[in-house]
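Re: the request from the purification team.
They wanted to know what the chain is likely to look like in 3D before they choose a buffer screen. I agreed to run a prediction and write the result into the notebook, where they can find it.
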Amino acid sequence: MFAYAVSLALGALAFLLVARILPGFEIRGGLKSAFVVALVYGVLKMILQKVLILVTLPMVVVSLGLFILVINAFLLWVTDKVLERFEIKSFGALVGGTLLLALFDFVARAVITGGTVF
């Protein structure tokens, strides 16, 4: 349970950082809204990501796993459509946000696990 709380807090901080860095990637309402966005995005990833990877497995294999970024961008877009307090204004902000969130996730996993990310 503690691991989920830490993951949610790191996700909220990552969303706030991306919103601060990227124009067109907005979270209205501050830290509380960032927690809600991180929670919804995390639940969508938990429920849909593995199914989408399985459905698109040939494309994931051919792209050596890079297609997972497309799946994550789709899930981020769905999060934008579900929540009013979160808005992605352009395709560039969607792509940049996906890449930055993936980078923050990679770094957070490396720090938490002591360098063993995979």
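For the purification team: The chain has five helices and two strands.
Please add any questions underneath this entry.
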